[in-house]
Amino acid sequence: MTLRVGGLCAGYHGGRVLHGVELTVESGTVQAIVGRNGAGKTTLVHAIAGLLKPYSGMVVVDGVELAGAPAHVIARAGVGLVPQGRRVFASLTVSEHLRLAVGGRRSPQWTVARVLELLPRLAERLGNRGDQLSGGEQQMLAIARALLTQPRVLLLDEPSEGLAAGVAARVRELISGLAGAGMSVLLVEQRLDHAIEVADRIAVLDYGHVVFDESTTQVRAEPVSVQSMLSIDQPLNPQPQGS
Ligand SMILES: Nc1ncnc2c1ncn2[C@@H]1O[C@H](COP(=O)(O)OP(=O)(O)O)[C@@H](O)[C@H]1O
Ligand SMILES: [Mg+2]
């Protein structure tokens, strides 16, 4: 399923954070979004998922226009979200989280059994509460919960934030596997090197504008110029010396 975002404007209390964002995520590919803190990455993901009502613009999934629809309608249309910070409940067990996430679909593609097969670590932790899980286990649970909503477009907002390198690598492997099986993946990623590893395309969001959107092959050839768009230490247009 293709996700197409066009001219998307969104923000808070009438103020604009996103200024006409354009993006396309093709089936079976990973589109990474990188950008500085506060660039609007989470706002974008929320506006797509219907957690934030956009001011204007299009969110088209499989040819169906969804911008402004309620979150549950967008979820039912096949858009799943793994939110930033994972949002795991401290007092619920893994098993309870999974039971809550299961929808009423007939012949679902993702069952609890299949999700646990993909994420065997969770199978060993079914009776553990959220606050008894490691960061990596919480992230796996957040992914499991999203998969149980039967997404064909998956939005992941900084899934490797705060994870040890090995666990973050495992998360990237998972994401690659899902895309390999046909999922359209929009991945917000803090680190360009990690985005390069997993993504087919990389876009840079800056002050709510997509200022760059190229194939990963292209980015590999010129990582420094993309990195400079992300750095807060190096201004994009440094003043010439002595001026
Ligand atoms: N709930 C909110 N209410 C008001 N402003 C917000 C809210 N959430 C985010 N913002 C503002 O929107 C801008 C973009 O934030 P965000 O989308 O979270 O950026 P990112 O995910 O790229 O770090 C920031 O200036 C932030 O302060
Ligand atoms: Mg964010």
Automatic annotation (TrEMBL):
SUPFAM superfamilies: P-loop containing nucleoside triphosphate hydrolases
Domain ABC transporter: 3-232
Biological processes, Gene Ontology terms: L-amino acid transport
Record-linked SMART domains: AAA
GO molecular function, one term: branched-chain amino acid transmembrane transporter activity
Key words, A-Z: Amino-acid transport, ATP-binding, Nucleotide-binding, Transport
PROSITE patterns on file: ABC_TRANSPORTER_1, ABC_TRANSPORTER_2
This protein's record includes keyword ATP-binding: yes
Pfam families in UniProt: ABC_tran
PANTHER family: HIGH-AFFINITY BRANCHED-CHAIN AMINO ACID TRANSPORT ATP-BINDING PROTEIN LIVF (PTHR43820)
Family: Belongs to the ABC transporter superfamily.
Name the UniProt record assigns to this protein: ABC transporter ATP-binding protein
